[in-house]
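testing teh design pipeline on a random one, pls ignore if ur not involved
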C-alpha cells in the first residue's frame, strides 16, 4: 500500500553506508554486500533437492538454509573485500515466504546484529523485487528507471502492476485474483512432464515453436487485475482431449505447445500493462520477479515499448530470481530513511507492501 515516508537523514547520508543483505524466503540462500548503493558481492546457494519432488518442500528448504547461511555470508564478505565490523546494517527478508525459511534468515540477522553492533532492517520481499531494477555494480553502465515508473512484477507466487513513486513508496494498481503467471508456467510444465521449475524449460522449447499453433482460454477480468486459473484449466483439458486421440501427442508437439502457452501468458500480462499506462499516463515501465527472466516476455515488452513510446527497463536476469542484492538495495534506502528493526521483530509468511 502507499505510505508516507520520512525524508532521508542528512546525517546518515554522509556516512559510508555498507549494507549486508540476507535472502531466505524460499529455496535460495543468498547474501550480498552493498556500499553506498553499489553492489560489491551477491552470492547465491540454490537447493537442487526440490527438483525430484516437483516443487519446494518447506522442511527441506529450511534445513538447507541452516546449512548454507554461514558459508554464503562468509563468501559474500570475502568477495566484497570487507569485514564484519564494516557493516552498517544487516537487511533481511521478513516476508512474504515460507515461515521456516524466513526464520533462518531472520534469526541469523538478529545474531549478526547483536555480535557486531550494527543496525537491523526488515525488508518486504516483493518490494525488493521491484528495486532489483536499481541494483548495479561499479562496472555496470545502464540507465535506472526514473520516478515515477510502473513495474510489472511477475513471479511464481505473485503477479502485480505497481506504481513506484519513490524507492519506498509503492502502490499496487492490479494483481492476480487467483494463480500467478509463474505458477501457470510451472503447473502446465508439470502436466507436460517437463519438471520443476518449468518456466525456463518452456522458454527454451518455445524458441522453436509456433506461437499461434494452439489457442487457450483468456480471462475476462475487469480493470488491472489478472487471473490465470482458467488458462491452466484450458491447457489441461486441451492436453487431455488431444491425448485421448494420440497418447504420444505431447512430445512431437512440445515446441508448439510451449510457444502457444507462453505467448498466451505474455499477451495477458502485457494487455493489462498497456491499460495501466493509459490510465496513469506513466510511460516508464520495468519488469521484476523470476518470470522477468523469460526471454519472450523481455522481447515483447521492449517491442511494445518501442511501438508505444515507452521507456522500458529490464533488470539483469541474475537479479530477477530470489537474491540478496535486491534485499540490500531496499535496506540501503531504508537506512537512508532511518527505518530500522528491533530485536523482537518476527517474520511474516504473508506480508503486504
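output:
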Amino acid at each position: 500500500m502507499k505510505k508516507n515516508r520520512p525524508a532521508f537523514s542528512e546525517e546518515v547520508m554522509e556516512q559510508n553506508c555498507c549494507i549486508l543483505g540476507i535472502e531466505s524466503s524460499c529455496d535460495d540462500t543468498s547474501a550480498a554486500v552493498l556500499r553506498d548503493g553499489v553492489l560489491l558481492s551477491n552470492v547465491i546457494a540454490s537447493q537442487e533437492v526440490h527438483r525430484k519432488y516437483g516443487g519446494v518442500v518447506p522442511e527441506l528448504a529450511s534445513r538447507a538454509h541452516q546449512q548454507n547461511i554461514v558459508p554464503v555470508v562468509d563468501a559474500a564478505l570475502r568477495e566484497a573485500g570487507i569485514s564484519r565490523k564494516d557493516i552498517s546494517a544487516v537487511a533481511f527478508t521478513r516476508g512474504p515466504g515460507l515461515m521456516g525459511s524466513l526464520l533462518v534468515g531472520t534469526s541469523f540477522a538478529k545474531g549478526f546484529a547483536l555480535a557486531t553492533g550494527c543496525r537491523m532492517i526488515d525488508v518486504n520481499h516483493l518490494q525488493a523485487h521491484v528495486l532489483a531494477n536499481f541494483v548495479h555494480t561499479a562496472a555496470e553502465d545502464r540507465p535506472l528507471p526514473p520516478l515515477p515508473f510502473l513495474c510489472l512484477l511477475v513471479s511464481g507466487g505473485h503477479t502485480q502492476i505497481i506504481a513506484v513513486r519513490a524507492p519506498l513508496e509503492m502502490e499496487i494498481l492490479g494483481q492476480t485474483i487467483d494463480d500467478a503467471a509463474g505458477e501457470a508456467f510451472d503447473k502446465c510444465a508439470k502436466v507436460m512432464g517437463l519438471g520443476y521449475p518449468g518456466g525456463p524449460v518452456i522458454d527454451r522449447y518455445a524458441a522453436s515453436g509456433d506461437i499461434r499453433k494452439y489457442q487457450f482460454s483468456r480471462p475476462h477480468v475487469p480493470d488491472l487485475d489478472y487471473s490465470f486459473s482458467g488458462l491452466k484449466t484450458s491447457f489441461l483439458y486441451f492436453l487431455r482431449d488431444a491425448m485421448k486421440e494420440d497418447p504420444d501427442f505431447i512430445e512431437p508437439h512440445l515446441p508448439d505447445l510451449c510457444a502457444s502457452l507462453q505467448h498466451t501468458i505474455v499477451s495477458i500480462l502485457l494487455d493489462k500493462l498497456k491499460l495501466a499506462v493509459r490510465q496513469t499516463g506513466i510511460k516508464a515501465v520495468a519488469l521484476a520477479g523470476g518470470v522477468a527472466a523469460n526471454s519472450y516476455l523481455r522481447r515483447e515488452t521492449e517491442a511494445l515499448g518501442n511501438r508505444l513510446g515507452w521507456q522500458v527497463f529490464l533488470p539483469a536476469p541474475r537479479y530477477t530470481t530470489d537474491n540478496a542484492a535486491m534485499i540490500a538495495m531496499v535496506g540501503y534506502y531504508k537506512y537512508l530513511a532511518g527505518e530500522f528493526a528491533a530485536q523482537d521483530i518476527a517474520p511474516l509468511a504473508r506480508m503486504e507492501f
